[in-house]
Amino acid sequence: MGLRYENGVQPEFAPGPFTVRDGFVPVFEARKSPFYSVNRLPISVCMVSGAEAPRIGRALASVADWTREIVVVLNVEVNDGTAEIAERYGARIYRHPWQGFREQKNLALDYARQPWVLALDADEEVSEELGGSIIEFLNKPGGGFSGARFARKTHFLGRWITHGDWYPDRVLRLFTRGEGRWSGSVEHCRIEISGAVKNLAGDLLHYSNPTIASYVQKINYFADLFLERQLAQKARWSAPRTVVHAAWRFIRAYVFRGGFLDGYPGFFIAVSTAYATLVRYSRLYEHNHSCSSCAAPSSFPDHQHQ
Q: Does the model's pTM come out above 0.90?
């Protein structure tokens, strides 16, 4: 499945980053694609999504020219035009109630038909360098690899973050279908495979937090999930562990991993990460010392991305 072009005319340049205006996705606002003439690779791009009309087009435009299949599992309540945008890029849409990150992403894998899977989020974009690395990886015979990982680079507070806890943030997202499944904790799932994994050059671009407010809003949501996991494990709260974990997250991110090199955004990330850690570990203390009728669950409306 490929792109659908206006008036059926195939343009000279492939779609690049764009903005969505009134639900219409421009064919381009144009970044020349180095993959335009490359034969499509046997890859199923698998994505789960909520209301992502402003961002999903950029993600799909970065892979639509050189992959054979796009699968999007969409939350049932979404009606902001996300489905229509995805369909313009040839995606197959499946609507399901939200089941959690891990379960929803495994559901998307079950719909894949191609030998290889590229797991992509709606707030991500495959860079040109990474796309070239993936093409070279799959076109090179031999190697015996079952998957590939690559760095994820996040855009935050007007700049790309290239140090601290947020970079290189290597993620395993390309793997052979049937060998990889989403596993890990409820709040931070990951792909697990049994075969060999190769590191690829190039960055997966991440536009996760457009504002400070959107970033801070996630703290309570993930703290709730962390508390559920601690209760299931019958964990005991510890003041020293809580304080040390929070302090270490700042020191590690800002000092040992060079977060200070990212200027004020690096400082903000290190401080807010330490604070988020403090909140997560303090939730068990709150649970143990609060009456059950006093607390109301927190909410996080945009629950489809980590």
A: no
